[in-house]
Amino acid sequence: MRNVPSRMCLVFLLAALCASAAFPQGSDVPRVLVQSSPLFPLSGEEWTLTLLIQHPNPHEVTIIAPRFSETFFLDRVLKNFRYMQAAGAAERWTEAEYRLIPRDSGAFTIEPFTVHINSVIVRTEPITVTVRDVQPTAAVPRPRLTWENVPAQLRVGESANFGLRISGWDTGLQRGLHLPDAAVFMPPLNEAFIIEAEDAASGGSGLVMRLRVIPLVMQNFYVPGRSVTHNNIVFEIPALSIRVLPRLVPAEAADEVEVKAADTWQAGAFPAMDTPLLSGSRARLFFRVGTFRAEYEAVYRAAGELYGSGSYAEALALLRQNERDHAAFPLFASLRRHTEMNLGLPNTQDEKPIHFVLVCCAALCAAFVCLLVFFRNAAKAVKSVLCALLLICGAFALLYWLSGTFAFGSPQGSRFLPAVVRGTELRQIPDFSSEPLIHLNAGQAVRIFGVGVNRQNAEHTAQDGSPWVFVDAHDGVSGWIPADRAVYY
Fold first, then answer.
1. Is the dihedral of CA 103, 107, 108, 114 positive or negative?
2. How many CB atoms lie within 10 A of CB 49?
3. Of 196, 213, 215, 458, which has fewest CB within 10 angstroms of its CB?
């Protein structure tokens, strides 16, 4: 019994040595950091209280949380590891997150947390937190931007001055909110134009930017629609399109001659017959097939006659129809792209070769049916695979066909008809007295919603008896045009 005290001393000494070896030298107790996010929580919103413990293994750390008052609802507790930077090196620490939802506002004290790491116990300091009331959310302004005083056309070397006007922005109500500078609304620079912008938001005029444009070459001025976010407010800038005409020869001509020259503006020449040879490999391959080439030449001559007579919309409608319906669609796609380029139209969307794909899907379905008949005595697994392939092919054909006549999720309606427009103004409401949004050049492809499906809602009649249709110009711009300015295909 005399050796009992000496043995107990030896046990305590070994335990102390083991405890000191579990942590870095010079620090017997691991560090515990407490973080709050956000620093000042709001009542009714989630608040995260994070404990960072200087220990690499989370499973060896036991945390005893204090009893939270009824003000704090404990939503969940997460424990993981995190790498912390210390002395230029990354150390692995244990991270414990307590996600709470405070119910009341005011100042509260949370009792200390107790952290157990093997035989070491660490207690945090009491935590004092101030919970604030949720401030009523101010109504987010939804301003609307429109271009004004935009000319329908310009000549090379001429300058145009127009503005970008904002509505739905009451400076008396938007306290603390300021309109962004004109540079935010500035369109992208283009080497073919001189573009200058200046602020115009002073004086309560409603203008946010004045723009000055001078075309240097014969190229239509086009700015696609885009969104700009400033101070968490989204500004939707509409698209802009101005046709550019050749420079007038300076002379003795009177104003009547200038107007006549503007009305008799001529586009570039119709593309050559062998245009597909200058395009991709698919177009060149189809061009060398005798049957396809003969049918292509017939359509080429018809479109060329329409183009030569100034019926640009009719010519492009014919080309787009064959691009959609003909088996040799790459030939007509190539010719259509070059024609639009000669008209100065911006990049437009290609037509979907719907009939070609549907014929291919029908051929595949017929092949799967023949295989089912041929392998009627085959194993059940083989029949199941063939039936699955048949259903997949049929479903794909149905969805692909619907994608050419339905615009799913469109606010204007799902059913649409493709068309090409003659040169016209796109207006926000079906009324000639309304301010036009943009000018649609002759030959531009659009989608017309509701024609033949819901004529009461989709087609309006002006006071003079002329009908209007609602169109989508593929670049985020939509509005009303007179019905006689559309050429369907």
1. positive
2. 22
3. 196
Count of alpha carbons within 13 Å of 479, Cβ hemisphere only? 24
pTM to 2 decimal places:
0.42
Token digits of residue 373: 């008949």
171 Cβ contact list (under 8 Å, min separation 6) = 204
Nearest to 17 by CA among 117, 25, 62: 25
Indicate the Cα dihedral angle 135, 136, 140, 141, nearest 10°: -110
Check residue 473 and give left, alpha or beta (phi > 0: left; psi -120 to 50: alpha): alpha
Q: How far apart are CA 198 and CA 347, in angstroms?
A: 29
Q: How far apart are CA 245 and CA 154, in angstroms?
A: 6
Helix (H) or strand (E) holding 310: none
Q: Are strands 240-245 and 436-440 parallel, antiparallel or unpaired?
A: unpaired
Q: How far apart, in whole angstroms, are the C-alpha atoms of residue 126 and residue 315?
A: 81
- What confidence score (pLDDT) does residue 22 get? 39
Give the residue carrying structure tokens 């976010």. 229
Helix 290-308 crosses helix 329-342 at what angle (to 10 degrees)?
20
What's the confidence (pLDDT) of residue 16? 40
CB 412 within 8 A of CB 478: yes
Q: Does the pLDDT at position 381 exceed 90?
A: no
Tokens describing residue 192: 């073919």
pLDDT of residue 261: 39
CA 343 to each of CA 270, 275, 282, 324: distance values in angstroms, whole numbers, following the listed order: 9, 16, 25, 21
Strand-pair partners of 35: 50
Q: What's the rounded mean pLDDT across residues 48-68?
A: 90
Options 1.10.287.80, 3.20.20.10, 2.60.40.740, 2.60.40.3600; CATH of 22-131: 2.60.40.740
Where residue 205 falls among pLDDT bands split at 50, 70, 90?
low
Q: Of the candidates 39, 36, 40, which has an alpha carbon nearest to the alpha carbon of residue 51?
A: 36
Beta-bridge mates of residue 209? 164, 199
Q: How far apart are CA 96 and CA 247, in angstroms?
A: 73
* 416-488 under CATH 2.30.30.40, yes or no: yes
pLDDT in tens, 86-141: 666 778 889 999 999 998 888 888 999 999 998 889 999 998 888 888 665 555 56
Task: Give the model's pLDDT for residue 236.
Answer: 85
SS3 348: coil
* Domain 144-245 classification at class level: mainly beta
> What gap in Å lies between CA 431 and CA 464, rounded to an integer?
10
For residue 486, give Cα distances in angstroms to 99, 345, 406: 60, 16, 19
**Beta strands at 120-123 and 72-86: parallel, antiparallel or unpaired:** unpaired
